[in-house]
Amino acid sequence: xxxxxxxxxxxxxxxxxxxxxxxxxxxxxxxxxxxxxxxxxxxxxxxxxxxxxxxxxxxxxxxxxxxxxxxxxxxxxxxxxxxxxxxxxxxxxxxxxxxxxxxxxxxxxxxxxxxxxxxxxxxxxxxxxxxxxxxxxxxxxxxxxxxxxxxxxxxxxxxxxxxxxxxxxxxxxxxxxxxxxxxxxxxxxxxxxxxxxxxxxxxxxxxxxxxxxxxxxxxxxxxxxxxxxxxxxxxxxxxxxxxxxxxxxxxxxxxxxxxxxxxxxxxxxxxxxxxxxxxxxxxxxxxxxxxxxxxxxxxxxxxxxxxxxxxxxxxxxxxxxxxxxxxxxxxxxxxxxxxxxxxxxxxxxxxxxxxxxxxxxxxxxxxxxxxxxxxxxxxxx
Length: 381
Hints:
Number of strands: 10
Low-confidence stretches: 1-33, 43-50
Structural class: alpha/beta
CATH topology of the largest domain: D-Maltodextrin-Binding Protein, domain 2
Largest sheet: 10 strands, mixed
Order of helices and strands: HEHEHEHHEHEHHEHEHEEHHHEH
CATH superfamily of the largest domain: Periplasmic binding protein-like II
CATH class of the largest domain: Alpha Beta
Shape: globular
Radius of gyration: 21 Å
Mean pLDDT: 86
Strand content: 15-25%
């Protein structure tokens, strides 16, 4: 039986494939020239430095907003109840972000900023857009429920509303892997014993991030020597990989075809629902992680709707429903008691290993090009 995210927690089961696609970095770039294109788009964009002045909400909301999102990456109880409360408001989802890389999504907004009011964006996308002047400067006093978001996430996502995050570690089959690895170093050491039975996520910064942590470096380094050391580490591991995979990275753990999968926490949690012999590891050296949320576009003329919707959607009751629907790791500490036990008691999803996390940040156009070059050298080797 095929189990989609959500089934193991007793909720709806939308087919959410965005977690398996290339969301970030150079591996899926729609041309590195797009980084320069974004900067060029920003030249004529008016400054947003005057935005964010505190104003009261209108007595009655009316209008429509366009939300650039990934398919099904919002709780089913988020949009319709809000529209019921505000019958003159419409939230239109554009789910074409599914096929975009970092540069692609950012350029999509930069080329037509009036087409979108807000979008789901990870930290690199948000900061890349901000560099071009495409991010609305929010007045967080208009979003009272932002106070319920863990301060670490707010600090790491300063220009929007954090919604979820995901860690990159590894899972393994306890009945196949006799060792009990707890670190990247131990994984690399035992790889020859499980040669061709290891899969790895086909995302450049995630896998290079794991190798950088192995070597004791930041996942956001742009130092040539450190990136080279990470490249050599991945090249050492590569002969023992079954493949770099863009989809179903951990699926083989269920059948036993795969012994070890280097992938996201969401992926391993989903596979654990089908095979309890799968173990998750948060490596001792630390983990790369994405953090994303909602970012308002500077050209929006419906900021009042964004403020009201954001505050509604991150209220604890609504936010818990969204986490139940998506199965992602959450950014509010106080919702644990509102979650199904399968989520609240998970040793994979959640914030229990937050001290081991380093969020992937925007490393600039030059840094991004460096990572793309290093990754291409790994793939082609």
